[in-house]
Each structure stands twice: as structure tokens, then as C-alpha cells.
Amino acid sequence: MRQLPLLIASDPAHTFETFVAAGNALALAHLRGLTRQAAPVLLWGPSGAGKTHLLRALASSVQQQGGRVSWFTAGDDLPWLFDEGDMLIVLDDCDALDEAGQHAAFALFVQATTHGIPVAAAARVPPVDLPLREDLRTRLGWGHIFAIEPLGEAEARAALRREADRRGIFLSDDVMDYLLTRFSRDLKHLMKLLDRLDEFALAHKRAITVPLLKQMLTEEGPESS
Q: DSSP letter string over 119-160?
């Protein structure tokens, strides 16, 4: 399904500037310099490592330069329509593509290559391990491939602090320690926790503290529905 372009550009949380590179500096530098007719690029790594963040940052950068972007994710409704006016095509969650999705992704890939439109993709495993039809798997693997490494504790702390500061939320060291020692350092999960904690604090008109965090977890559970 073709995504609404403005929804990508309007999210200030997913930019190159807000990405904590750590061991992913080469991937970040490559995406910053991506140009039209560039070879395809595949980012792979575990959930929460920052693959979608980087793809959204790339899409936002293209849009800010006046280019159009089409974004497709496994599970999106078919058909997936090609637009030769695009400056970038994004294929996210490639490892989860079903048979119909693989057919659609392959067709997009061929059309993009013919028109000199770069393709940026993401998956949880490297190309050799992708459970996809061979022609699509090899195309995803013939360009630039970057393994996106999850953040260590120091980098996760920096990313969480940066996002809290961007939102105007004060997180004490005690709250940061509690979040980083009791929960996965998966940034996607940590950002969802920050969302919930911010909303919970506003609803109760209280500052964010460890007791408030514990109260939220007791009342709502560790996962939000």
C-alpha cells in the first residue's frame, strides 16, 4: 500500500540527527549520501535496532528536498503501485513478506531499477537467510548491505535522554536506571514506554519518578494494549 508521504516527514523523532549511530556510523553515512540511481541498500538486524528509524530518516530527507517517496511494508494491502515520479522506494519488514507480497516487491524492484530509482529495504536477517523467492532475495542482496547493531546501555541511555529532552520531559538518573536495567534496550520498546509514562504522568499531574513508573506498571501492566 502506498503510504501518505507527509506522515513520514512530519515525525521529528525519526531523523538522521536523532539517530544514535554508535556502531552503525557507516550505515548512517551511506544513507545520508544516497543519490538517485544509487545501488539498492539493505539494512538488517534485530527488531528495535533502528532499521525503521534510519529508513524514515532517509525518506524524510528525500521529501525535504522535494522528492516523493513510496513506502511498502509486509502486510500492506495489495496492489502495490509503482510511480515513476518517486525519488525513493522503501521496502520494510522484507523477511515477513508472504507469497503475494514477494511478487509485488519483486515487480517494484524491477521497475525501480529500470527507472533509476533507489530502493532501501530492511529485514531482520541478512540476504542469505531471507525466506524469500530467489530472484527477490538476490536482488535485495546485490547492493549495499549493513548489519544494524543494537545499542549498548550507554547509547540506549543517550537515545532515551535525547528523546525525553526533545519532548520536554525530565527523566532523573533513577528513572533512567530503572528503565534500562529492567527492560529490554530495544529502542522501539523503550520509546513506547516513554510514551506511556509521559501520558500517565500528565493524566495524574505528577512528575515522572520511579514510584510513578511502578504505579503505571502495576495499573497497566508491563505492556500497553
A: EEEEESS-GGG--S-HHHHHHHHSSEEEEPPPP-HHHHHHHH
Round to whole Å and give the CA distance between 16 and 64.
13
Stated as kind and residue range, the H or E segment containing 89 is strand 86-92
Q: Which residue has the cell 534496550?
A: 185
In tens, the pLDDT along 131-180 reads 999 999 999 999 999 999 988 888 888 888 888 888 888 989 999 999 88
Q: How far apart are CA 84 and CA 116, in angstroms?
A: 9
The backbone torsions φ and ψ at residue 126, rounded to the nearest 5 degrees and listed phi first, read -70, 165
Which domains are present in the chain? 5-147 (3.40.50.300), 153-220 (1.10.8.60)
